[in-house]
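Narrative progress, year one. The postdoctoral researcher (J.K.) led the effort to move from monomer predictions toward full complexes, under supervision of the PI. The following entry was the first complex the group processed end to end, covering 243 residues in total.
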Amino acid sequence: MLKGKTAVITGAAKGIGRAIAERFAAEGCNIVLNYRSTVDEAVIEKIKSFGVQCLAYKADVSRFDEAEALIKAAKDNFGSVDVLVNNAGITRDMLIMRMTEEQFDSVLDTNLKGAFNTIRFASNIMLKQKSGTIINLSSVVGLMGNAGQANYAASKAGVIGLTKSVARELAPRGITANAIAPGFIMTDMTDVLKEETKKQMLEAIPLKRFGQAEEVAEAAVFLAKNRYITGQVINVDGGMVMN
Ligand code: NAP
């Protein structure tokens, strides 16, 4: 059911975004792979090896104009925008009393405003199509909070409010919007954490292991296929948070 559709994935040069792009390619979607700094040719080749087309598009999603250009490029190249995955994200961890304005703003700008920016333009297209699915990457930190991550937690909690509002607004035209809240997934983002922190986190995970990017990608494809789930937050966290 996803074959021939267009999937736009932000921040997809590595980590979870890359896994999501590959998983949608495996379903037969043409991929618009957004990246900010660089993307290896091997990443693009891997996606094409699934027999689909891949447009690698450089854009900083925190910028309104660049997000607009990204969504326009998707529509111009493939004729539709069927799946939008807002995956681009950053951390700038610091204790609240030492957090700079720049650390707060940059995280909010990418993680929350970035998602707004792409949805702002993709929703126009999806409304005309009367179909589409939006998947936003939140985090368990957005549900639980985390010392040293007030900026990140605020952005990821904001993503949940954004997702639920958009889900209500777009539902009458058959468009779904959901969030995925990963726990600890092994990527460059978590690789930088101290061994001691990783050990503590492992103890808080009932399944007693860190997650794989592919396990998040599987949830994204499930949400894109299912047309009767909207406004939900799906945790992919080894049981860290149980609602
Ligand atoms: P990652 O390995 O650090 O990858 C993040 C990607 O986002 C990078 O390719 C980065 O590109 C891109 N990016 C950052 N800012 C961008 C911008 N303004 N415009 C476009 N692209 C941008 O992180 P990850 O672990 O795969 O995380 C992916 C998403 O899952 C994030 O939203 C993250 O918050 C969320 N998440 C991750 C975990 C985890 O445990 N890993 C847990 C919960 C939630 P550059 O390298 O060029 O900057």
